[in-house]
Amino acid sequence: MPMNRLLLLNGPNINLLGKREKEVYGKFTLHDIEIEVADLAQKHGHELDCFQSNHEGELIDRLHQANGKYTGIVFNPAAYTHTSIALRDAIMAIDTPVIEVHISNVHKREAFRYQSMLASACYGQVVGFGLKSYRLAALAFLESK
Ligand code: DQA
Questions:
Q1: What is the model's pTM?
Q2: Site: Transition state stabilizer. Where (predicted)?
Q3: Which amino acids are annotated as binding site, given as ranges?
Q4: Is pLDDT above 80 for 2?
């Protein structure tokens, strides 16, 4: 089984957190998320690698590269959640478990956000707890050992 490392993966527009739709996503930034999850991981003896991209293919490449290298992947696919069969196939293609994360409660928002192309390919899903969604997903991996 994989080494003591987690991958934190974020999709499109997550780089704009803190400026973007603050009433939906809050004031915290991507950097805040990365610091907090890295700290949590460290407390559980894990290193954290972080990657954010606005490009679907780059996220797919990162998933491929991650295969077999991590305890798990905490992934906020952002809008690609609702559209990307290619990301779903990438998750299906690797052995490393992925937890899908959303900051907002997508089920209380527009109907086009209700569907996830990825969720049924994932180990689990955490939705609607703001920055804490990432912490809870990371803990699901960190406490499962
Ligand atoms: C999001 C929810 C998505 O519907 C949206 O496209 C995002 C962010 C979230 O974290 O709440 O960009 O993934």
A1: 0.96
A2: 20
A3: 76, 82, 89, 103-104, 113
A4: no
